[in-house]
Fold each of these.
Amino acid sequence: MTVYGLIDCNSFYCSCQRAFEPRLKRLPVVVLSNNDGCAIARTKEAKALGIKMGEPCHLVREQRKLSGVQWYSSNYPLYADMSRRVYQVLLDHAPRVEPYSIDEMFLDLTGLPGDLSQRCDDMRAAVEQITKIPTCVGWGPTKAIAKLANYIAKDRPEMEGLCDLTNEQTRNRFYRNLPVSEVWGIGRRLAARLDDTGIRTIAQFVNAPPAHIRKIAAIIGVRLQAELRGESCLQLSEVAAQRHGLACTRSFGRPITTHSDMSEAVTGFAVRASEKLRAEKLDAAHVSVFIQTNRHKRDEGWYANQASLTCAPTSNTLALTAIAMRLLRTIWKDGFRYAKAGVMLNDLAPAGTQHTLFDIPSEQDTALMGTMDAVNQRFGRGALRPLSAGVERSWRPRQNMLSPRFTTNVHEIMEASSF
Amino acid sequence: MSTYAGDRTTGFASPAADSVEGPIDLSEVLDLRRPSRYPVRVRGATFAARGILDGDVLIADTAAQAKGGDLVVASASGTAILAELKANKGQWWLISGDNSHAPIRVDPAQDVEIWAAVTGVVREKP
């Protein structure tokens, strides 16, 4: 019988911060979104203080009861490297691992010898010893069941971080008592529509006539129903599918009011997006640019617009930047306080496979881009960039509470005092 | 990028063309890609007698099993320290390199824990 597992890192971003700062061990830790805006990861101590997911930091920070909270800007280079480490440890314990998100991995646990509970416990212990990150593991005959098992393992302390849903009787017991909204892929809106037809528990969902589910939740719903019954529909995918689009968007550290600042920002996004494109050896044939003011401050004036253009397939930074600048000019309006902008690249295809008659990229262009990437690889992102991407870049997102990049930059590694 | 590595000569064919091995990659030698390997900077020189000086970069391995006499990175009273591990009467102790501190007993309940075993040391500018 096929067995899928799902291992999930507890408060992943916070756990990464704790890994390298022992003083944080029992303190409430919160990691903030881009721009130091909202709480996006909380330790259980922080949750106990009533800090909610998505809570804006600046609104609650001054409260006396939160004076002991350790706030951190999100440090993505650190989290990416720790995610890699978790993945590599898992490969020593399961033959196939699917990195589903930065902090969750699906495992193929089919046919492994010995007691599966013991194995999963050993796996958790190894991940924690090696990466210092605590995890929970759930498993069952399908991915949807593994995901649910993981939720139960995490939600109920008495499970001690493990939950086995391979047994149908055990599953049905949980199904009767869990709301359908805990099922992977059933969001709030879908849950509300199911609720309207009297489907509240997972058991009710699983036992509903497929025709009824198809009407409410289309084929996805029917597939989930089968998965929850133990019929596997979703396979393990060890690598991400080729992208259809690629975006680089940011909220600004302060509102942008001038065209020149916005040009810098949008150039920067185009540069980064084309870098990502080349890293995946792709060309883009469609470019979009959007700009918008703060949705929550409509009294300051609200404006949002987007423009797109089809172009000859390319991954050339200078070509893509030029297009982005043209698009920006068509949507720019003076007199607004812009909070966010972005560049999106679409119609992606493997580099060099879809050249038109007229736009054959010169070898020099390819060499120039290769050199630019190599320089930036060696001297840090943005070391070599078009001057139009700006020098001062005062609109850059705020990251005032950034920890060192403990594992990716030799000048910022962990320190130990000689005892 | 065009890189000449001793192979693709323009005039006379390089007799070494099939034998290029490239420069030594220290991160490979030190096995830094292993998920359990972390570089850690030392502050202070209490372990000078064991050849570890202020500013050295330790290669700490969180999967390695430390035994008596080994150097370890440990956490004690909320900070990371470099200490020598010693077994005494069935317990593990963290020992100072120059006897400047009294030994501390390893006790996870008191948040005194071994973080990693030291498996190597790198000095950038001796």
Note: Chain A has 13 helices and 14 strands.
Amino acid sequence: MGMERVQCSYHSQDEAFKIGKETYRGQQYSQIYFARLHLMRTLLYSIVPHWKPNFPVCTVLGLEEGKECVIVGTLYKHMKLKPCILDEYSKERSVVPLVKPHNFMHPDDHLVLEDESGRVKLSGNPISPSEYVTGNVVALLGKESGTGDFLVLEVLDAGLPPQIEFPIKSREDKYVVLVSGLSVGSSNSNPLQFQLLIDHITGHLGDEKEQSIASQIAHVVFAGNSVEIPRRLLNGQNLASKDLSKMAESIKELDILLSQIAASLPLDIMPGPSDPSNFSLPQQPLHTCLFPGSSAYNTFRSCTNPHCFELDNVRFLGTSGQNIDDLEKYSDAKDKLEFMERTLRWRHVAPTAPNTLGCYPYTDRDPFFIESCPHVYFVGNQDKFETRVLKGSEGQLVRLICVPKFCESGVAVMLNLRDLECYTLSFGTQFSS
Amino acid sequence: MKKNGSRKRAPPPSQPPPAKHPSMTQEEEFMDEDVFLDETLLSADEESLILRDIEQRQALATRLSKWTRPPLDADYVVQSRSVVFQQLEIDYVIGESHKELLPNSSGPAAVIRIFGVTKEGHSVCCNVHGFEPYFYVCCPPGMGPDDISRFHQTLEGRMREANRNSNVGKFVRRIEMVQRRSIMYYQQSNSQPFLKIVVALPTMVASCRGILDRGIQLDGLGMKSFLTYESNVLFALRFMIDCNIVGGNWIEVPAGKYNKTARSLSYCQLEFDCLYSELISHPPEGEYSKMAPFRILSFDIECAGRKGHFPEPTHDPVIQIANLVTLQGEDQPLIRNVMTLKSCSPIVGVDVMSFDTEREVLLAWRDFIREVDPDIIIGYNICKFDLPYLIERAANLKIAEFPILGRIRNSRVRVKDTTFSSRQYGTRESKEVTVEGRVQFDLLQVMQRDYKLSSYSLNSVSAHFLSEQKEDVHHSIISDLQNGNAETRRRLAVYCLKDAYLPQRLLDKLMFIYNYVEMARVTGVPISFLLSRGQSIKVLSQLLRKARQKNLVLPNVKQAGSEQGTFEGATVLEARAGFYEKPIATLDFASLYPSIMMAYNLCYCTLVTPEDARKLNIPPESVNRTPSGETFVKSNLQKGILPEILEELLTARKRAKADLKEAKDPLEKAVLDGRQLALKISANSVYGFTGATIGQLPCLEISSSVTSYGRQMIEHTKKLVEDKFTTLNGYEHNAEVIYGDTDSVMVQFGVSAVEEAMNLGREAAEYISGTFTKPIKLEFEKVYYPYLLISKKRYAGLFWTKPDNFDKMDTKGIETVRRDNCLLVKNLVNDCLHKILIDRDIPGAVQYVKTAISDLLMNRMDLSLLVITKGLTKTGDDYEVKAAHVELAERMRKRDAATAPNVGDRVPYVIVKAAKGAKAYERSEDPIYVLENNIPIDPQYYLENQISKPILRIFEPILKNASKELLHGSHTRSISISTPSNSGILKFAKKQLTCIGCKALLSNGHHTLCSHCKGREAELYCKTVAQVSDLEMLFGRLWTQCQECQGSLHQDVLCTSRDCPIFYRRKKAQKDMAEARSQLDRWNF
């Protein structure tokens, strides 16, 4: 029964997200904002003449009352409910237990536009505080009103980045499996479920038909939260060796399971918030010392989060979910896909970093800027599977995918590289009526 | 027209700039100070110089003119309309007496000036003529009308002797015989003859009083000394009292009753003369309770200090002045501008005015003040710093024409040093800057008066009230920013503007204008008195007003000092310390002291002296003997004035509260709320007035009677509660009074449901109230459950006013706000109370303390929690005892003079480990230095000197062996001390890598782990990476917060606010982060 597994060419684009020798030398976050503004402004300035050819372009300082003009700057959203670290120190401890709201928006929130020269408060309907977040760079058409506000008449986002051409359609079906949130070691992870997934991918399950599908799987991506490290145990306290070894056990378990996959096909593993990796974005690849078994295979690749790569010239961009989850806390949209769409239109994977999303204090660049539009954009650790194709004004086509948490849903996502269609593989072992 | 165009510049005026004559103004001693109009005015020469100057700055002038007040209507111009205005400031000057209005007088006379604003927003200066200073003496028996004229002559002669260099024609204008009565002691006769002595100028009251006090030789009567009456009333206040004017009310001057001044002396739009008898004073009711649209100026200055010195006007230039002008009642400022020395990039919504010289900056500001014509000037520490600095700086630069900031044309602002001392507020040195016609309202002073805070820096006050942090730029950086370019100066300007903006926000948020105007209205004193003077003048003003209605006069008793002895204060019932897990009902006396004074008719005029008690034969049923042994007549014989004042205050408060409920308009609500608050405070300060031994009219018989009644009432309540609520009387449990404070009694009824306790509380309050003389009333308000009673005046509990849910956690006398405790103590105490009271988790609280102590000993404590701060008030040599913060400041100066703390700064420090026997003050160290050099802190010091007392206090009522359990348990056994990186020996040590797992030295070839730990690679890596992860999270949150506070994303954070709770943390996070990363890097070989 010799069935050949399909193969793909693979190019990692993670270099930009590797921190390497960069260290903390007392730099602050102003530099990354500055780098972002610079990058985005150059871009926006090139679009503005087509967008509003008849209006002058001003800086915040150059505004004159009543004169209509275009300005470009970084948005800052003033939020009443935004949790503040100062409160943890200075305020009287609140008697009412803090309920963690999943969203910190308030009707009084307002936006401010800032460039190196100054900031101005924004008003007017076209720009909605519920849609934008601190860190977006936009171009605005409007005028300074008498009260010192800038009345916005129209907003311009950078729009979808240019896309490399989609490879000419082959007749061959090749699948990529996207999984996230295995959470090995957590209370709701189910080892059987995971084993079923592995058996399916590796072709140890089902009849010939099913095996033939399995043989068309060319690549697996684990989009974050593969293990769950009890973070509570780690907070600065010295751990008992018992706890330490318990933690190591789940990693060992994961290693054993992953090596089964790595033995038969390439896999990418991305770090997520609960993995033993750093906290700030970009999260650095999980250390190979954690995976003595699977890392022996050259098919095993430990990657960054965000993760960017090409498979047979199809460009992928994915994160383990933090960027979208954070947007959901500080802004509003009809679904997760809309948040994803916005990040593409803003050309920025993580606009809320560094403000509310931890991020390395870069001094000279902003690696989250999306230079080239991916064909597939996925986000891990979401509540449910969602997908849609986004069409750009210049013919860009992007497959957006929310990958659900596997430990809760038992669902993995199959994506066909031929036509970017996707469907789910469900390994739920418990069904509710 | 340049008249003096060809002439050389006139030399600077010979007259020295505003003389600083230090004078002691004790709060309790009121002294008038005559100011002669022409003394303060510039000469004509100087004036033309200034005029020329103004012409030169035409360009600026047009810019400024945008902001002038609305122009006058025609009927104002032709004087066909009554002028109705709200007055804010009343003072007087000495000028020539008005020939038309007062044809019969001549020579110098006091002219009252009332400054105010009409409802259209016009500024008014009303010169009131004809009001004369006077006081009373008791007419000696046997003195007839003839004797009076001889008395007059003698007094005039003595006055002339005493004031030899005065050119006043007649010192004592006239002496009239009037019928009055002294307020002191119950008297059966209605009145007796008094002499009203009218003098020429207000200061003569004091000098005349001195002569009469010491004694005067009278024909036929011999040497006689007189007790004077009402000779300590400030002239302006005297005028207000006699004309029924209260602070901040509306005054009307009918058309035809005023004359426009011949030569206007002020910059006010409406300036006129009138007679004092023509003024109509409107009580603040209905239409007249509103506020005029005053102009409020909030400003802040920046000075470029030299490195290592606090800015001094003799050296350091004023580089920026930020201004914000707001019309009272509007929420957006009218004007926002900043004046800068050297260029400054524009700021949105702000008028930036840049100048090349400091002289131009200062003069621009002066012109700005004149054009905008603010009624109230606010700011933070402006009285002690900004205003005097500007004036002294201008004097240094020899800009004689600068200090014309008041409303009087060409009149220089006067600066003097004052010492304000009051029992309540302590002694404070201050500077008094007189800006004629404008009220100064320094928010720092207000904060210090009205709120107990752990820090009064603008930063921490704003954080507290506005939840707004402000960036704090260290004054050593200010010069660097100034010396940079237009952009860096803009940065500074933004900072300066924020400092001008925050006081205005505080003013709005805390409703100070409403509250202070209402306080002025209720007590009848000018608004400026409320800040510059103590409590007693407010009561005095009310007392004088009431006494005047009753034909009573107040004696000016010699200040008795503290010799009169003290009386027993409000003792409290002994506290039965413990942790009460059943509801404790609290019975409160509503306004206890005022009620006692009313109920027992306690007053100066109802007090019967012991001799009189024997002599006068008053029927016993008409007097009350107080528990302290004094006798007061009941109201059927003589109604007391104090009870009457109190009654009016409390009725007015009730009315204000009722109106407040009805009111819909938010501005009207603000007024009413301010009023009811002012009324409450006023009612409570009456008792204090009678007890102030160095006060205006102390009467310890009254105050000791009040407290003795108070004590009796508490005892009585305790007895009644414990007698009635017993099982014998059919109640479920025996009630027990566990504690009683000045005006409240805590009762444990024994029931375990809050609702039942509330019902019993209500029942008890009603029952006991019935046994008291009206209006003394016991009220039930709240239940504490659970309740931790530590000792008297120290307790904590959950506060319930409704049965289903508690309102808050209430603590009293527990270390939560004291400044010289480190944050750790505050947090520890708070969290423990939280755990004990709210979570009801005593073992949890114990564990929490143990963990904290163990963290401290194991060197895991966040340094910012250990920082102690103290203000450096003088230099090291001036301190008699060595103090930790002073020694440290001295040491820091040796390290780097530029960043060392100066006098006036707060010095933060931590206590570090040092050689055995080192004194505590030698062990203080700069937290930043400690962080940078890994200097070990001294956990033992923190354990013993900071934590142990407050913690034991809380736990002693709860735990049996609190001290042993908490401070000496097994958790205190392991100690870890960090190795300093700056100590001598380590510099020579060779660094050798150790195993991350077991700290064993690594042999060559190994970088991370020893061969023994190799198998635990994964788990040890997880541990390292988790530390990095935690630090990253912290780093991100801390630094983005600072970015947010400073209000700019694209610029580096410069803030050095050591008051900020995350200042050290942020620094530490940066350092720890770098270290943790390098640890992590060891895995990548």
Note: The domain at 134-240 of chain B is CATH 3.30.70 (Alpha-Beta Plaits).
Amino acid sequence: MRSQSRPIRRPLSRPVSRRSVQGLLAGAVLVPLAGCDLRPDATSPTPPPPTADERLVDATAAAIRTARDVAARVPEGRALVGVHEAHLTALGAPSASASPSAPAAPAPADLRATEGGLESTLTDAATRASDGALARLLASMAASVAQHLAALPNPKASR
Amino acid sequence: MSTSDEPLQTALAAEHAAVYLYAILGGRTSRTTAPALYADLRRAYESHRASRDQLQSLIADAGQQPVGPEPAYATPHGIDATEGIRRAALALERSCVETYAWLVSATDDAQRSWAINALRSGAVRELGFRGTPETFPGIHELADHS
């Protein structure tokens, strides 16, 4: 059981405050900055290795960026680009792609496959996150991708 | 696995309310003049009833007494017409999704997996009540709908 503030038996209550999410975001941003001191100092302590949740966020952000790049090249995927950008921002992850070159435009079926894969990745990450607030954020992102997938035009219906 | 059943009890209380209210909404919807809405309400009712039963089992398996339903719940305003019923169903589904998002944060392991699945199912079900895809379903402070 996580030590987590909870609503008082009110299903309509707001479970985790914005501050929690922002704190999560700030944590994700501050950790990389801690290693950015340009002055060489032999006495500086070695930065601690990334936590399991930080590694999880990094891997998840990479999957989101890949999906964002695929969505950007398919007309049906335009709405998803903004969603993926917002998800990267919430995770405190940079949005720039690792590979700036744009390969050939993928087919709509590729968009569905990529988004379906991302939904699975996000679901798995939500399951594994140690921090409850991070788990909630990742699960919400997975649900968002599921909603957008369900709202995509049905390829069979348009034939 | 959780050492307390309190988060599950909170979710169960929400499901009791959802089952009650979907029964009300279904009872006010004409199967003849609004068949699609009726079917969506019926599916939502059955889904929430299944979730209620699963939560009761999870809590009972942990050796706890599942909370029971309230005798009655406040019914939403404006459910005399089809559009009001649809709006009420959307609001109800969103409140359940919010509860499940919270449950994700308050549980782990199998219980969290269950909550993640419930969150996803509810978020997709919203679309049947003319909900639009959201950026952060279930997280009210990041919501992109009014």
Note: Residues 50-151 of chain A form one domain.
Amino acid sequence: MVSINYAFREICCKIVYYGPGLSGKTTNLIYIHKKAPPQTRGELISLATDADRTLYFDFLPLDIGQVQGFTTKFQLYTVPGQIYYNATRKLVLRGVDGLIFVADSQEAKLEENIESMHNLVENLNEYGYDLKELPMIVQYNKRDLEGISSIEELERILNPRKLPYFEAVAFKGIGVFDTLKSISNKVLDKARSKSEPEKKDKKELVSAVAQQHITTPAFARAEEIEIKSPQGSIPVMDNDKDVEEKVHYGSGLKDDAGKTQVSNEIREKEKEISVEPVKPKEILEKKEELGDQEKIKGQNLIRNQEEILKDMLKIKKTMDEMALNQLPVKIHREKIAFSPEEKVMVSPMLKQKKTKPVRIGFLRKWFEKITGRR
Amino acid sequence: MQEENLIIYEEQIEKIDRALIKLIKGAEAKCALLVDKDGHLITRQGFTHSLDTTALAALLAGSFASTREIARLVGEPEFSVLFHQGKRDHIHISLVGERSILVVIFDDRTTIGMVRLYAKECGDELVMVLGQTTREKKKEEKTIDSDFAASAEERLNDIFKEES
């Protein structure tokens, strides 16, 4: 997921180049590294074998500077393409925000491309990521070679979902930046739409969002499900915090009215959006009643937990104070004194111990035994 | 479904920084970093100027991820502490909560025992601070605008103008 750091005003996205072995993933990165202005790029780190095959990942941080007051950073990773390295390949996918599938256009490599695509889906599924939700771009690399498949054929076989694709010759830089720009656009769009209200009240919006996902692209979606608070439009994050606080920490005392209004509005929106016929009113009402009861139960439970947590915190605080006053740590530190002559840590306990002569005798015996000398 | 975005607020960073400083002073370490499991650097304290912390964070996260996989293969749920010993400097890596890693770099002025002790204490504190993400309200924070992606693309276009 995209990391947003408000303290440093930083947004950080992880983009992974995926694809079969020798399809040009690392070449993409090398080209970007070569051509990017020095102030934007970090060091290209390559964890490769002696034969320059990626072993774990290549990593290139790219800092594109301020965008609307946020320092925007991309972290570009490649995976090892060889089938053998699936364990490490899978690890690189963790927390991915955007994927670029680099396919080898050569006819002979078609099989490998398909296999890699299957492997990608498999690995994503294991992490529980939904391929449909993940921004993804396909890059058909090595278009300058002979004996390559036609774009139509590649599209038909590798890209049935009709994702955006780019033709590329990575080592010459053709298509490399177009691919990067396109994925960054998709990723940031997704990050923004994720921080919009649609994720806030999950229970209520799940169905609406699910329906939307089938038909509407991300950018169109976010606008439609904008939630208005009683005071009018409120910034995204506030809304998030308010609702979440109520749901999770049971401080529903503050403005319940506001909340119900918000959720009502969501429900209305949901109705507007839903294409299928709305369920009978009675069922809806029943559901709401049940939902409220559950919520109250949950709130009480959480409130209790919170009290316990507070008590525990108090205890911990006093214990910390006691610990500071009673110096168990200090005593520990005095015991281990630093002796400058020996340049090693010597505890006084060890110093007092005398060396046992028996041990030396044993060593001598052993020496005699193996050398046969006296 | 993907995990939600990692969002860190200013007060949190302040608290985290304070905890890290306490750790560095207590354990006499050189520096301490808090890294997200995906390799994003959250914050850092101590002598980090000579370090490429971005790369460090990514590599440490990678190393931690592979260790975790090793743990799984030998039937452990997780190796929660990792220690790299060098000639001068050593690195102590420990898991904080579910999503972040605490990295302490130290040399021979202190001992691994001290670092472990303070890292454990600091880790517990950080878990609480990070747990507050969803609790704390943030009123005036500027959020990402709808045309953010477009602005970013413009910026990318500027940077790679002559290339494409």
Note: The longest helix of chain B spans residues 53-73.
